[in-house]
Amino acid sequence: MASTALKRLMTEYRELTLNAPEGITAGPINEESFFEWEALIAGPEGTPYEGVYPDGMVCISILHPPGDDPNMYESSSERWSPVQSVEKILLSVVSMLAEPNDESGANIEACKIWRNDREAFNKVVRDNVKKTLGL
Question: Using CA atoms, how far apart are residues 129 and 57, in angstroms rounded to an integer?
């Protein structure tokens, strides 16, 4: 099983190296472990994340096992499955930054602000980016 996963990740890494989506750079942390990756994702234009994502801390369904969500925050169709490639996961993060899903968010307070006061949401994000960058 591990050798199949390793072959797949090596293939996906090669493809990402040759044809990376715009604004995304990703790969294994080191060549000894293809199972630990890091990524640099430029925030989408026209969002408060434009150009920079402050700390890289995101919670996406790839971190959770496939199938039904025991907390019932998301349907099984929204959760990760082995069919999804590394590239598709990274593009999902970009999409999530541009248009968060406020129906199944991990941060309920942020979802409320996103829904009810978009400018306040954008200000909080911009302020957090500045604080994280020491500006």
Answer: 12
